[in-house]
Design goal:
Layout (H helix, E strand, L loop, with lengths): L17 H21 L6 H7 L4 H7 L3 H23 L9 H16 L2 H12 L9 H18 L5 H23 L3 H19 L8
């Protein structure tokens, strides 16, 4: 079970108690499964409620319609992705080889993206962009800050502005390429993961201090 989004996007009523939060999580988990199985257009709130083992009335207490469920699921994935970045970009990464640092981060994102529900949401992003809320850019900025700090630890000779620029380019490049990869089949997705690693390692290599 995963936690509900901190920002209750398009929700009719945000849950105030743990029981309500668990119910919302169950609805979003069920929606991810249904969207992956039949697609957004064919999915229904009745099917989502049935999969979540809750009544349709209970579902409508929190979400006015299917679009609101989609937006809340999208927001939850977004928060989870950015939390993942903070989890893998730890200070310990400052001591490992550049290839391992980049590889571990990209592999972690690749595993996350392999979730069928996530892939279904990303596909719907392309088909009907109006369904999606504008992304909270503060999350990207926070990820850039974490990566910039790590790059500075790897090479203290780099100026802070340079570290932030390098981190910004890496985050933007990685997001673009990994999003493209998840929209293809599994083979293409894996190929894009490897190409993303190669590009980021080559980009960061001139700025990385030699490891002992």
């Amino acid at each position: 079970m995963t936690s509900t989004p901190a920002k209750a996007v398009s929700m009719r009523r945000a849950p105030q108690q743990e029981r309500g939060r668990q119910r919302v999580d169950s609805i979003l988990d069920a929606a991810a499964e249904i969207f992956a199985e039949v697609g957004y257009e064919a999915a229904t709130t009745n099917a989502i409620a049935a999969r979540a083992k809750t009544s349709i009335g209970s579902l409508y207490q929190f979400f006015p319609d299917k679009q609101a469920i989609f937006r809340a699921l999208d927001a939850r994935y977004c928060l989870q992705l950015h939390a993942l970045g903070a989890q893998v970009l730890t200070p310990a990464m400052a001591a490992v080889a550049l290839e391992r640092m980049v590889g571990d981060v990209i592999d972690a994102y690749g595993d996350f993206q392999s979730q069928p529900g996530f892939r279904a949401v990303m596909l719907q992003h392309q088909l009907t962009p109006h369904l999606c809320e504008a992304e909270d850019e503060s999350l990207d900025r926070e990820l850039v800050k974490v990566l910039a700090t790590l790059l500075s630890m790897r090479n203290p000779a780099l100026e802070p502005e340079r570290c932030e620029l390098l981190a910004d380019v890496c985050v933007r490049t990685g997001c673009t390429l990994l999003t493209a990869g998840v929209l293809g089949d599994e083979k293409y997705h894996r190929q894009m993961l490897e190409q993303t690693k190669n590009i980021l390692v080559a980009y960061l290599r001139p700025y990385d201090a030699p490891r002992p």
